[in-house]
Amino acid sequence: MGVAMGRFDLVTRGNSLAFFEYVVKCLVGVSIGYLLMKTFPRESGQYYWLLISVVLSITHDNNSKVALDRMRGNVIGSLVGFAVFLLHRPPNLLTICIGVAICVTVCFALNLISVCRTALVGFIIVIMYEGEHGSWTGAIYRMLGVVLGCTLGLAINYTFSKLTSPMFQRLAAAATPEDAGSE
After folding, report:
1. 100 in a domain, yes or no?
2. pLDDT tens-digit profile of 110-122?
């Protein structure tokens, strides 16, 4: 048992509380996303973006900037992808280059250069999906799925920061004297 606990401490870097909290938050987010996917099976293909966004926006330190930046970048990328899709179907090198330039320009103009990579990824995903499927709905569904997933991640981060984290911290503080006395 001592070897296993030593390896556990190595994995968690001595911060088992943060480890367990982060695992629980990710499990809550994935569970809610999965239940939504099963509740609305016709739209289940769009819930993949929600699941991806949930796990990307939940942070170990309850930082909401990650989720907000992901939302901003994906809204920009999806809208630019939608506009470029309407400009020319199917996409070609010129329209893709125009879309990349528009994404970078919009991010600079809105002083959101930190979300530019996310916007570019969102744009490429949307333009490639739309080009293959010939429908503009994918851009809208993807944008909504990402925003919903990030919102869910924000809600989980907020809930844990206000309710659960203080509880975990009290438990950790209460457990510390016992651990120190048993050594």
Report:
1. yes
2. 999 999 999 999 8
**Residue 2 located in a structural domain:** no
Instruction: Supply the range of the domain harboring residue 44.
Output: 21-166
Number of domains in the chain: 1
Look up residue 81 and give its two tokens.
């992808």
CA angle 114, 34, 154 (to 5 degrees): 35
As a whole number of angstroms, the distance between CA 179 and CA 183 comes to: 7
Asked if the structure places residue 159 within a domain, the reply is yes
Identify the CA nearest to 117 among candidates 56, 29, 26.
56
DSSP per-residue string spanning 73-103: HHHHHHHHHHHHHHHSSS--HHHHHHHHHHH
**Is this prediction's pTM over 0.85?**
no
